[in-house]
Amino acid sequence: MLSRQFTTECRPLLRAAVLFLILGQVSAVFAARVVGPWVPIFAGIEHSVSTNTPGANSFEHLQVVHALRIDLLDPGVQLLATPRIANYQSGVRETAGYKVKDFLKNHRLQAAINANFFNPTDYYLPSGTPMALSGLAISQGVVVSSQGSSADSAVIRFTEANQASIVYTNWPPSSTKGIYNAVSGTYPLVVQGVNAGYQYRSSGDQIHQANPRTAYGLSKDRRYLFLLTIDGRQPGYSEGAYDYETAGWLLLLGAFDGVNMDGGGSSTLVVQGSTGLPVELNHSNAVADSGNERTVGSHLGIFAHPLRSFINDVVAFPDDTAAGITWSTVSPSSTQVEYGLTTNFTDFSTLASAAVTNHSALLTQLEPGREYFFRIIAISLGQTNTSPNLTFTTTNYLRTNQLFGLDGIWRFTADNLDGIDWTAPNFDDSTWMGPGPGLLWVDARSTGPNPLVAPKAQELPTDPNNSSYPFITYYFRKHFQVTNAAPRTSLAFSAFVDDGAVFYINGTEAYRLRMDPAASPILNADLSIGYPCNGDATCSDDFSIGPDLGAQLSDGDNTLAVEVHNYNQLSPDTTFGTTLSITTPNAQSPSLAFTYATNTLTLNWSRNGFALQAAASPGGPWNDLPGPVVAGPVVPPISTSTLFYRLRR
User: Fold this and answer.
1) How confident is the model at residue 19 (pLDDT cuts 50, 70, 90)?
2) Residue 324: beta bridge partners?
3) Which residue from 140, 150, 307, 499 puts its CA 20 to 30 A from 26's CA?
4) pTM of this prediction?
């Protein structure tokens, strides 16, 4: 993110004389730069890589520019701005922070880029950290962040039909009626085909210096959206850009209007790779410095269809332990599906040797709740064609019951338990303090505890040998009951933890939260490697343990042990509390339904992962409908004899 000492409100109207001068400057400096060709990567999305040689006939700084050109008229293109977080609170808790690559993966997007400025601006915060945005943000018709001031008021807006517009200064706020997605930047860079970046050259504000950049632009006819990153702070590779340089690239690439977005270490442009996993196009200075992409609070994502090829129209219909796949080929071919839990495919569908153009396969004996990779092989006239690697995730039908809530009762101690098997189910904790209900907390701040940390119940002791600050580590134990533990059973936690913790089930370590993953064992003096939210347990850490936990649980009594560690020795507070829910498989059966009207029989079924079969009698023999048919609705040919239908897996 670019730091700002003060904010300058953009003036969308420039004097005619200034416009004439800028136009003359633009024509002079564009001469020596190399604009890369537009290469299609998805239907409606093209990628370009550009660079320059700094000097008299070019811009002042060495720059590597990655840009996407999005065809907003392509019927497969859809946009997604970062949606609201759970337990939304305007101005405080608006979105969940994610790396751009994780935002892309979480929503199965084909491209994604960072958008609005946001808070908190700490580097490398945990995924899901609640954040508040600056400027207007709308996600699928829902206002995520309102325009609260003239700061960060350059808004790019889209209707549900992807009709795009720019409001250069959204203050007072413009109407949001009919706006489906919107994100905001700081100020316009290109205004009606004119480079407006020169007006900021004399500013001493750090945001107007040579920085890594993220910028958005629109073509004059509003058909194309341009998403641009310029890498920076990496001498010899890419140094960053002034505003006028960023605007110059937008103009060269075809933008008629453009906006400066959040930049600096947040500038990140990601696309979906051939394996279905994210690929970072640019090389942000955050990655260059630390090897880690930064967590940001605002993104803009794009859904798009694959490019047309020999294999097209691939659709996966996953269920819990099976998945149907359908696809088409340009010409008749025999086909097969390779699949597995990694791209080292270990399984194959039955080879369909008949040469046809519409294909399907049923994959069985899958694991519930897992991501599978697959690709299609099609052979036509001796030529082998292979699709890109694709993914689907099997469902996991579950029944969830809460075992205890945040007010659960715990035994606790601050004694040093190094070398003691305190997590064992039969450990005697009768001499520990308590029992006391959660949230269990301590806060040594002179201003008192944060009122947003709630519900506070049992107060913990402070360390008399450390100026009455909290102990570095507190230990907690409680028992819970389980009935009929089975395979695919998992435990779901919604915990409020300040700062880090280790969770143990029946004496076995099950989960580490913000604790060094390499430390073995965790000791009493070990500090947490991170902290929640803005340093207080005002938002939950939600995670699950399993689904292979069933073998570790006992019917009847079980033990949950947790050690909570502070972030540093002078951290004034510690908080712990969690809910615990158990999830178990919930077997479901499919239902096969039919309708008959005007001599047309239509069959449909309630779950994926099944193939349709027919027989002349209930005793069989049963045969797959040609294909096989793995997704409904289907209209079978009318038969003069009685036919029976069923689903098989």
Assistant:
1) very low
2) 317, 362
3) 150
4) 0.65
